[in-house]
Design a protein that fits this description.
Two copies of one chain form a homodimer.
Chain A (H helix, E strand, L loop, with lengths): L24 E2 L12 H15 L16 H15 L8 E4 L1 H13 L5 E5 L4 H9 L3 E5 L1 E2 L2 E2 L1 H13 L7 E3 L13 H13 L4 E4 L15 H4 L5 E6 L11 E4 L2 H10 L7 H41 L13 E5 L6 H10 L2 E2 L1 E2 H4 L8 E5 L5 H19 L4 E2 L2 E2 L2
Parallel strand pairs in A: 1-12, 3-4, 7-8, 8-9
Antiparallel strand pairs in A: 2-10, 5-6, 9-10, 11-14, 13-14, 15-16
Helix pairs in contact in A: 1-9, 2-9, 3-4, 3-8, 5-6, 9-12
């Protein structure tokens, strides 16, 4: 067999390993609840768009140009206004193949090896892994219950300026922070933008989970608050409609969008998925989201109850105001990277803290995603995880108020 | 307005310009005939997959793993066997967002600035533009009516070996060559593979148009003939079902697929489009293709008749055995890059030869895509093009056997 490693670049990431299927207890990945997929409404939307506009599929970009299906961008203009306090028009939006492609395009346009960016100390693992792969330095700012700590951001920006280091952007997940679920306060948002203005920096706002807020209350997005057009904003329908529909978007001014477009060499993102989504969302998104959030909160409550029961005082967490994940801290004796390995052998998948965090104590943290498993699977999975953890680390000693043995 | 060029990489391609809509006579782009989109059958397929498998959309990769929806890969195994004489299994296939993404992944994995590849002297403009952007040297091999001229390939490979230059791959569009429509003979295919074996080179086979052969007769693919697993094969449904469905694929051995997978950071290609396609193709692909080819041949015949009428002896071409484009040669006095500019001002879009060719006389060539326009638009477009050409270059002097003035 010809070995293509002979002609491959030397700086590639590690080759993939064969997919090994889905573990019995799957607490990783931004999957959604299967029962939340609005199958009938998507069917109806698909029927309508195919009937009325099916022949558009004969053209690349469905005659809407490379920024994405116009009907979806028109819906997004309304949605961004309603949900994110963003006033923009269809020319400010680039539809992407999920927010994953959005992240790649932004990084490819802006980053070179050796560059520096500001990130939140704990954050989306995929954002971190991309930066590590690109050889970009991450300056980490802690997040507390009000979001990114802008006092520390201020100090770090002053330090970097003194060292003549100009960060390429400030990356933040301000609304339903990944992994903590925190919502950045309005005051912090204003402070962040003031600092960006003072140091003339770009801001990269990732609002992928922002619609999943139990109360529905959220401050305006950074993009919406920004008066200087220095924010690039990304979002997705993966977390609100269906992950396997690969439809995300970027909102930014033309000096960035024009560069991202020239890097988007995929001849357009899937148009039928865009058309179906636009049709579905116009009529159903608001109600669908409200139902979804109820379901997710119920799953979170089940998860939290199971953790309280199985881990007791060994586990600490802040109850998140939204999202699909819980950020958990275990005692010092536990190493979650090791735990993730032994857990996977037992059919339980978790995200160990160091993949999601640059905190010193990240090895005591883990992230549990709760949207996909059903309530019984959540309960059994937490019980199984506690048992594996006890067997390896002697913690938690008690489960359901009984000593383990 | 914040200017993101301040934080952009210095080596980006030129920023995009605003999309300006679709010209009245559009002879560019791999669009299909709008009347050929199987709307009703796609609707039925969509209804079935959503009803039966809609909840799979809750999971990234629809529980099939990152290589793509298993149902589509299962169909592809059968299709590749039937149409391309390829014997493979679902593990050998990576589903991509169109063949555009397939091309990017292969290039990203294999190519660095300063590398050398073998290409066909005239070829897909998007393949050329990618290589130019990456700073890769192209060694061009002419194509005649039997495909790539393997005697010249042999001489060039010997020359490169003497210079210690090892090409990263031999790129070819063997079946319905872009832009000439040529089908490489079986003998040439075997010679190409022998040369690849002799020099231990990878072969990159692009079969994007290969299903569009009027007669249905075609030799086995290079991948199917290769005994040494040195061919990477790409294909797409864009040219047979719908361009705006972004579903292509790569067939290769694991030493390459594993590297492509680690570069495919988009969290999967659109799953609903894959599911609908698989459902549609299982039942309808063969008949659909046969109808499509009849329609395309009728459009080609209309185009050729219009060219004969309007350009007369000023235009020469080989009638292609398939595809969606005609490769045309005009007299020396015409510069097709200039013609493309003045034509666009008159609402006529064409591909000037130099975008598609490294031939010395590429400026006398142009490519006309004929799948999208209807018969009347083809006729009027050719008439308009001839008039613009005459006004700028004094050629063709006659149209419909009458002198122009």
């Amino acid at each position: 067999m010809y070995d293509f490693s002979k002609v491959s670049r030397s700086d590639l990431p590690a080759p993939a390993i064969r997919w090994s299927g889905i573990p019995q207890f799957n607490f990783v990945g931004g999957h959604l609840a299967p029962e939340s997929i609005p199958i009938e409404k998507l069917r109806n939307a698909s029927n309508r768009v195919l009937s009325e506009k099916g022949s558009l599929l004969a053209s690349y970009f469905v005659e809407s140009g490379p920024q994405g299906y116009l009907g979806l961008r028109e819906y997004l203009v309304k949605k961004l206004d309603r949900y994110s306090s963003i006033s923009c028009n269809t020319d400010d939006i680039l539809v992407t193949s999920g927010s994953s492609q959005a992240m790649d395009l932004i990084n490819w346009a802006l980053l070179e090896r050796g560059d520096t960016v500001i990130v939140e100390e704990s954050n989306y693992g995929g954002a971190f892994s991309r930066l590590i792969q690109m050889g970009v330095n991450r300056v980490a700012i802690p997040v507390d219950n009000d979001g990114m700590c802008t006092d520390i951001l201020s100090a770090e920006l002053a330090r970097l300026a003194a060292e003549n280091v100009k960060p390429k952007y400030i990356y933040t997940v301000p609304t339903v922070h990944n992994p903590s679920g925190t919502i950045m306060s309005l005051e912090r948002r204003k402070q962040l933008l003031e600092l960006a203005s003072k140091y003339d920096l770009a801001v990269y706002e990732d609002e992928c989970y922002a619609d999943l807020v139990w109360s529905g209350d959220r401050p305006p997005s950074l993009y919406g608050l920004d008066k200087e057009s220095r924010v690039v904003h990304i979002g997705t329908f993966s977390k609100t409609v269906a992950p396997a529909l690969r439809v995300g978007y970027i909102v930014a001014n033309w000096s960035l969008l024009s560069r991202l477009l020239s890097l988007k060499t995929d001849a357009g993102s899937g148009a039928l998925e865009q058309m179906i989504l636009a049709e579905f969302c116009e009529e159903h998104f608001d109600n669908h989201l409200s139902e979804l959030n109820k379901l997710l909160k119920m799953k979170l409550d089940t998860l939290v109850a199971a953790i309280d029961r199985e881990f007791g005082t060994s586990a600490s967490y802040d109850y998140p105001p939204g999202g699909i994940f819980l950020w958990l801290k275990l005692p010092d004796a536990v190493d979650t990277e090791l735990l993730a390995k032994v857990a996977l052998d037992a059919g339980i998948a978790i995200n160990p803290g160091p993949e999601w965090s640059m905190q010193k104590d990240s090895s005591q943290h883990l992230r549990l995603c709760f949207a996909k498993p059903d309530l019984k699977n959540i309960e059994e999975g937490v019980e199984a995880l506690a048992r594996v953890c006890f067997e390896r680390f002697g913690i938690p000693e008690f489960g359901s108020n009984q000593p383990r043995n």
